[in-house]
Every structure is written in C-alpha cells, then in structure tokens.
Amino acid sequence: MNKQDVQITPRTKSGNCNEMKNKTSYRIFLLSPAYAGGERARMILSDRAEFALARKLRGQKGAPIAEVFTFLSGLYFRGKIAYATAFARPARGTPGVLVITPTRGLVDPTTRIHVDDLREFAAVEIHEGDPRYRLPIARDARRLAKKLPVESEVILLGSIATGKYVDVLVENFGDRLRFPADFVGRGDMSRGGLMLRCAVDKQELPYIAVAGAIVNGKRPPKLAPRSYGAGGRCNVATTVEVSAARLRQTRIVLRPGTMLPYSRKLGTQTSPSE
C-alpha cells in the first residue's frame, strides 16, 4: 500500500468514542476471524469438553460461528460483533455484518458450524497467497461489491498491517473499504474494549480509507476501566478492560447464564488471524 498522511479525529475525554455525522447512507462490517489453531480451539474441540458450547458444536445443529469465535478470541471478537451489530446500516437485501473465514469466504455471523468446520479452519493459515483462503473470499467480496449501492461503506474490523485481508478487499471495494481510525496504535484487547464501550454508549468511531493508510501510530492512552451490569447492552456482564495481572481471575461470559473459566494460558492474545 502507498503511504499517505492520515488525519485522525481527536478522541473525546470520556470514552474515546466520537459521534459520527456521516453522509454515507449504508454501512456494512466485515469481521476478521478468530484464530482456530490455539489452545482455546483445542479445548473446545476436545471430545472430553462438557461445557455447553462444546456440546453444541458437536451436536447436530452446531453452534453459531460468532459464538464460537467469541470463545476463541474473547474480548476482541466480542467487541467486534457487538460494535458491528450496533452500527450496521445495510441496504435492503444486503447483510449488515459478515465474518471472514479461513476457507468459506464471507459468512453471516449466525451461520452454524460444527467440529469438522472448525478443524478445517484450523488447518488453513490465512495468507493472501493461499488459494484455499483467497478464492472463496475473493468470490464473495466480488459478489457483495456488485450488490452494494454506490453510497455504501465497508468497514473492516481487523488487521490492516498485512495484505491478508487488505489486498483482496481493496481489490473489490476500493476506497469504500475503511477501518476505525482509533485502531491505530492499539492492540487487540484495547480494540475490543473500545468497541464494546462504543456499542454500549451508542457512539460510533470515525473511519478512514484503508487504501493508502499509515497503519502504525503512537499508542493511545489506556481506556479507563469500566464494568457493565447484567442488564447492560450486548450482554456484557464482566469488566471488559482488564489488566494482564488480573487475567487469571477473570471469567468470560459467552451468553447470559453460561460461564467458562478463563486462564492466562488460554487467554486472548494477538493471533495470526485477527
């Protein structure tokens, strides 16, 4: 990508979110996948796993891909799905949120997957040169680009530091492909916490074009800790910005009433996919 200067909208003091006053009529979101080859994937794929999501994944109906990726990725994917659901403005007949997959192209977040599907994802490392990944996503991006009205934006919630997502998506969406300016300088945990906060506060982040963007920047200040009650939006029932020192004591909520132990070893760390 050619570099250009990027003007980033200043963050507010309260929550690092900015009210958006966009002229764009329609907006859809593409979510990068969770890494399916780590410890958490091995945990859910184990035949001995008896927690609810593992049983659902092994069952006849399978489990929604967004729920599985939330388990694998934790805070980052939870933030992405909450944020995208809150701010998607699709045109009639087009999806508002789609999930990038290692082998199946772009899928609806409610798509149900099974154990064999997750194992298939784990076997393919996302790389722009791998046809097992490239061909399906290129096919779906091409179809989607033809369906979208001209006044549409496609927001990538994922890494733009390499070409694994950017190359094929810019090829099909051009300047319509954008990403949150506030992602620059943040790690996955910080991005996840920021998106959850903005979804709850109903404040949308500013976006900039992916093509030509400078992807490295000064690290922004840490988010002030915040807790969300059981009645809060997005079903966030735990503190979403946690320090590394507290990860061993933190528990994640997949959905109301379902608690799974969270350990530093199995925690949310930067993965090759996201």
Q: Helix-strand pattern, N to C? A: EHHEHHEEEHHEHEHEEE
Major β-sheet profile: 6 strands, mixed
Q: Strand portion, in percent?
A: 5-15%
Count of DSSP-assigned helices = 8
Low-confidence stretches: 1-16, 18-22, 229-270
Question: How is this structure best summarized?
Answer:
This protein is of the alpha/beta class.
Task: Walk me through this protein's architecture.
Helix 3 (65-73) crosses helix 4 (75-87). The protein has eight helices and ten strands. 31% of the residues lie in helices and 14% in strands. The chain has one domain (26-217, 226-261). The protein has a six-stranded mixed β-sheet. The protein has a two-stranded antiparallel sheet with strand order 2-5. A two-stranded antiparallel ribbon has the order 9-10. It is an alpha/beta fold and 274 residues long. The chain has helices at 39-45, 52-58, 65-73, 75-87, 115-122, 131-147, 163-173, 188-201; strands spanning 26-31, 63-64, 97-100, 106-107, 112-113, 152-157, 177-180, 207-209, 251-255, 258-261.
List the helices and strands and how they pair.
Blueprint: E1 26-31, H1 39-45, H2 52-58, E2 63-64, H3 65-73, H4 75-87, E3 97-100, E4 106-107, E5 112-113, H5 115-122, H6 131-147, E6 152-157, H7 163-173, E7 177-180, H8 188-201, E8 207-209, E9 251-255, E10 258-261
Parallel strand pairs: 1-3, 1-6, 6-7
Antiparallel strand pairs: 2-5, 3-4, 7-8, 9-10
Helix pairs in contact: 3-4, 4-8, 6-7
Task: Sum up the structure in keywords.
alpha/beta, two-stranded antiparallel sheet, six-stranded mixed beta sheet, 31% helix, disordered N terminus, 274 residues, globular, single chain
